[in-house]
Fold these 2 entries.
Entry 1:
Amino acid sequence: MNRTLNHSTFTSLDGFIKLLLAVTIAILPFYIENKVSYIIFLVYLMLFTLTSRISCRTLLLSGASYFIIVLIPYLFGILLNGVLYNLTRNEALIMQQGYAALYIRLFRLFIIWYVSILYFHTTHLETVLSLLDRLLFPLKLLKLPVQDFLKIIMCIVTQLKGTSEDMKTRFLEDSRYVMGGNAASLKSKFNGISRIIVSSLVNSFHKLDEVESMVEEMSLKPLFKYRFKMGKPEWLAVLSTALLILSLYIVEKGNGFLL
Amino acid sequence: MEIDFTMGYPHSNRSSKVRLFRKRVKMSKNRRYAIIIILVTNAILISLLESIIPVLIPVPGVKLGLASIITLIGLVFLPLTDVLWIVIIRCIVVALLTRGVMMLAFSISGGILSALIMFIIYQQLSQYFSLKGISIVGALVHNTTQIIVASLLLGQLVVLYYLPILIVSAVITGYITGGISEIAIGELKGKDVFNTISVQEKGELKWTN
């Protein structure tokens, strides 16, 4: 939970420009069909990843949820569908969509997930919240407490940064002590878990005044101090994405664009 | 600035562990936010327990969902709006810090819908449902919503074949988290955590009922 950003050119890029580029890259796969386009796109994405210096471990950990929620049910479904079709020969069980179309859909979803991971792991949370504060202005017009909401998120992240490692160590110690190792029965394990949770909650509520002061402090100071900047790295990033779009366009149109 | 804040809701007289009570509390906005922050932080940290403690569920994609304990605690002690805030903020923070924005679609839809259904049952049908039952329904709604969202995103109904597995696992995990929540809520009441918060506010409090 303790998110630290690598210092790369990518990290220091303007948050808004980076957001625009991330959205552009995330939607590009919806407009390409040619195999060469896919190769160009993947090469660009690889360079994008290398420049961001994001660790493989982070990507794999974040990817686990995509794998668990999307891929496992899908692969299981395909397998079961195949088995049922072979057993019954029921035409209703034939896949409504070809496999190729489905793989492309999976690929597009994967890219949206991947680009969002790259964006959020290379952008300071303050910048993200600051941008959200501006982008969610229609909700403010509806008198929704957007700023309060974002400040709460900021406070939670601050709290997590301060407590996650301590808490993990304490959880480990407590679980060894309270749950009595592998030999303990399931019931005593669950009693142990509930005791850990209760003690964690009770301890947290002892700090209620402290957290309240943090909220008060946070509500007084201007939390969202994002300023738009357009320097050399930003121009380079925009230019590289423009080049990518141009090359994909050329490939998709079969060179017709230049002639 | 002070706002109205309802703390505590009536609950079944059948379930002896969670007894009927309703208190109306006037609490400062920052105090209320501090409670939400503490509960969300705990929900996220509690989910760490799942990675630390080996509770064997040999089905891929199935986990205990210990964070839902905080939702259940919220249902018992806090008003619906705050419970929804807790669910939404937890999903956003986890998405921002770890899973990425796409997973937000799954977690937020499942989280909000299950919290709403659990709230309705807790409010209206609590004479028929214990906290374990409410937790099972919540887990069922959560898993079903997630798989429907996955099916919509993929445009494939085959994903729904996984639903029976998730339903069975939801019954088991919902029962477990419901059991833990019952113990936790009982202990929290014993320790008077939420009442202590109110008593600390003595000057600002206005109790009714």
Note: The first helix of chain A runs from residue 9 to 12.
Entry 2:
Amino acid sequence: MITNRWVMLILALSLLCAAPAVCTEKLSPIETLKKPIEKVTNILHDPAFKNSGKKNDQRNVIWKVAGEMFDFTEISRRTIGKKAWKTFTSEEKEQFIKVFSEFLGNTYISKIQGEYQNEQIIFLNELVRGNIALVRTKLKRASLEIPIDYRMKKIEGNWKIYDVLVENGVSIIKNYHIQFKSILRKESPQQLIERLEKKLVARKS
Amino acid sequence: MKYYLNQFGILIIVLFFLFTGCASQKGAAANPASVKLALNSNQPVQTGVLASASETQEQLSPEEEMLLTDDWADSDDEDNEAELYSIPDPFEKFNRASFYLNDKLYFWVLRPLSAGYRDVVPQKARIGVSNFFQNLKAPIRLVNNILQGKGRAAEAELTKFLYNSTVGILGFANPAKKHPKLNPDPEDLGQTFAVHGLGHGFYLYLPIIGPSSLRDITGATGDYFLNPASHIQPLEASLAAGGVRQINTFSFLIGDYESFKEAALDPYESMRDVYIQLRETKIKR
């Protein structure tokens, strides 16, 4: 009986140990991006969404896949700025994260839905130091190539994007930060959230 | 101001002739060889991202270092941040008016023209036209590389110019594109000023021209004289060439401005920041 218990215990322990072993076999930053981007590409090519009436469905499916790649809490905190973020109530923070991620998704997914036909993403390399990484890619068009770099951070073992750099250093997050900062100088967090909501609604209609 | 511009103009013209002098001499003697060299030495490194001239490679790692180090978001110091990422905009009213004007010009004139042009002219031809104008601007890039002390890049620009002008049939094709060593970062006079320590001064958004700064518009004026297309006679022909270039460029970009506007809460402010960020990254390279 005792031996039985021991066996059980060892089995349980080994299972416990095995689980992290599986988990530590985590994807590298570049691999983390390759799979979902490939999925998005497939969705974009999927004939099921060819009909223009299906564009909204397609956007939702893409959003499900693409949204996973980003850390919207970190993105929100950075666009607002650390100091100002502290002045947001937790409810405002939550509202902001929700509306801003939707705003970003909506903006950029519509763009790739419209333009994808003649574009191609080439993965170049990844630079990793500690829990920060940079994945470098190129967006290839007929006449030009646009370098796009993804800044990533390891959060709970998974790499998530927190900033996108266009043309080797133009930060999308910084750009929003500049805009939001000047809005927040004159308006309350609530008003900023409303602005984003309004713009979203205007787009949907 | 005008006096300075004049002086600058003369300086640049003198420099230009100096360099074109050297260029044609050196070019005749050394270039076929250097093209070959560039082609050969390029093959093994082509798979890597860092496949560029060793000079730029040295510059690239600090740049990658910079991209990787994220100083901005980890600093709590808002004042420091404000200093880093803003530019004085004393003429905001005027600038916003020009922004409004250019916005209308884009939707009413430039977009319909470019779209019409895109529908009529096949893509291959448009890429050819774009290559042609890019190739013509080689003197600007060459002179500014020299002014910034970037010898390797200057050599690469010269090689590329000769290669594309001959093998690439007057620059309509861009065979040099395949060789990373022959594609250094494009330099201009605004960047040269910056490398020598001159700041932006203040932001300017100009009718037709678009975003700029005191420093960069001064630089662009100097560069203008280095562009062979500026010297086409009569003036109308020169302007027409400029128009074709503009329409050709925009034929590839239709929709980009619209998306940019869609993505912004304040397009004017967003554009200003993109401009400043873009110039900063170019100066660092």
Note: Chain B is about 70% helix and 5% strand.
